[in-house]
Amino acid sequence: MIRIDKYLWAVRLFKTRAISSEFCKKGKVYVNNIEVKSSSKVEIGNKISIKKKGIAYEYKVKKLLDKR
Description:
Largest sheet: 4 strands, antiparallel
Distance between the termini: 16 Å
Radius of gyration: 10 Å
Structural class: alpha+beta
Oligomer: single chain
Order of helices and strands: EHHEEEEE
């Protein structure tokens, strides 16, 4: 398992890990339709939803990455 903020940064959804952590703190990141903190863990098969600029993006975790 890997932290959600590190995963979002590793798969290049955010430019920095600090930005991904900030999105989690603001309540704009959901895993399986549950709002998560930046320290929440991600597993294969989870559905990640992110709200950016009024648009909701959805992703499914197929592989865990911890390095870019």
